[in-house]
């Protein structure tokens, strides 16, 4: 009833967060191969409105309904990862799965067969670089509610709804704790904050290395030009113009730059596996990123070569021969 609210649902696991409850799971008519590990899946509970409110797409079948109560047949919704694990290339709707394992004896969860009525998309839980894990959603009405949260989808400023929503919750359940209230964007920013620090640190070292490389190239070429002043003067007195001298110095610098880029790119490809956990949103061997960095270093290297080349082109043959 609040203005701005599109949908509100209940779920045991909030978006971008991993469930702490997981059990072994088996599928009817899908025996395990010899030596194959028993599949593991997270147990989650949800209301019929949860998937729409959380923005989790329904890929097949249906969402939970109000008729999925305690006396109704037991139903579940699985995510894409678990559906592909048990039923690759098959329609999982109508198939049955059950919780299993020794740990199940010490929990309020039963090992009854439950019919799959829907398949939803994977959610990015446990961190932005975590691989999606199998998940089984059960209706709140068919499962003991151990804990959960409220998911609200708004059409504009979600933070502005916090005071009104908190008042409604306290009116209905005065003793219920209200904590960790934040938007999905805020939780996402908090989850990637450590990676941003790592990215800033690695980028700082990269920029420092590029500066050192540029100074090194410019220094080596400047020393080479000063040591070859007489040679350059003789070349120019014999007919070499400033453009040819400039090309000669740039060519020498280009050889150094080319060797450095080849060695650097090869080392980056080999070392990228060690930096995999520091990367977010980009593959370790992403060709676009490697190409952009190589182009940037090439530009810096050319600028570093240009100053000594310009200096060499300004050498006066008479002054150089007179000093000899």
Fold and architecture overview:
It is a single chain. The chain is built from eight helices and nine strands. The chain has 324 residues and is of the alpha+beta class. A six-stranded mixed β-barrel has the order 2-3-8-5-7-6. The longest helix has 44 residues, at 184-227. It starts with a strand and ends with a helix.
Fill in the keyword field for this structure:
single chain; 324 residues; alpha+beta; six-stranded mixed β-barrel; two-stranded antiparallel ribbon; 9 strands; 43% helix
Count every beta strand, where a strand is a DSSP E run of 2 or more residues: 9
Q: Compute the separation of the termini in Å.
A: 93 Å
Counting copies of identical and different chains, the oligomeric state is single chain
Round the mean pLDDT to the nearest integer and report it: 83
Shape: elongated
Strand order across the biggest sheet?
Answer: 2-3-8-5-7-6
> How many DSSP helices?
8
Percent of residues in helices = 40-55%
Q: Segments where pLDDT lies below 50 for 5+ residues?
A: none
The biggest beta sheet, please? 6 strands, mixed, barrel
Broad structural category: alpha+beta
How are helices and strands ordered from N to C?
EEEHEEHEEEEHHHHHH
Radius of gyration of CA atoms, rounded to a whole number: 32 Å
* % residues in beta strands: 15-25%
């Amino acid at each position: 009833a609040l203005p701005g609210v599109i949908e509100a649902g209940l779920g045991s696991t909030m978006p971008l967060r991993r469930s702490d409850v997981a059990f072994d799971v088996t599928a009817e008519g899908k025996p395990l191969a010899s030596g194959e590990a028993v599949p593991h899946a997270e147990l989650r509970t949800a209301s019929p409105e949860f998937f729409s409110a959380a923005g989790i797409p329904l890929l097949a079948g249906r969402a939970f309904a109000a008729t999925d109560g305690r006396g109704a047949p037991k139903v579940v919704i699985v995510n894409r990862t678990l559906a592909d694990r048990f039923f690759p290339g098959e329609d999982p709707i109508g198939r049955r799965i059950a919780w299993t394992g020794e740990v199940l004896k010490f929990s309020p969860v039963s090992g009854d067969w439950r019919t799959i009525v829907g398949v939803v998309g994977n959610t990015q839980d446990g961190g932005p670089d975590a691989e999606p894990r199998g998940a089984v959603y059960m209706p709140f009405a068919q499962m003991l509610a151990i804990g959960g949260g409220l998911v609200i989808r708004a059409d504009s400023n979600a933070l502005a709804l916090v005071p009104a929503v908190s008042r409604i919750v306290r009116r209905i359940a005065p003793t219920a704790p209200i904590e960790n209230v934040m938007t999905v964007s805020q939780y996402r920013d908090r989850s990637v904050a450590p990676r941003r620090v790592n990215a800033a640190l690695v980028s700082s070292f990269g920029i420092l290395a590029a500066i050192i490389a540029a100074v090194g190239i410019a220094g080596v070429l400047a020393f080479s030009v000063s040591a070859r002043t007489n040679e350059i003067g003789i070349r120019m007195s014999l007919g070499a113009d400033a453009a040819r001298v400039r090309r000669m110095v740039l060519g020498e610098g280009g050889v150094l730059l080319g060797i450095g880029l080849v060695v650097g790119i090869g080392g980056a490809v080999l070392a990228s596996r060690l930096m995999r956990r520091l990367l977010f949103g980009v593959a370790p061997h992403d060709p676009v990123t490697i190409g952009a960095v190589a182009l940037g270093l090439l530009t810096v290297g050319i600028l570093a070569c240009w100053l000594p080349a310009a200096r060499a082109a300004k050498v006066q043959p008479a002054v150089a021969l007179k000093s000899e």
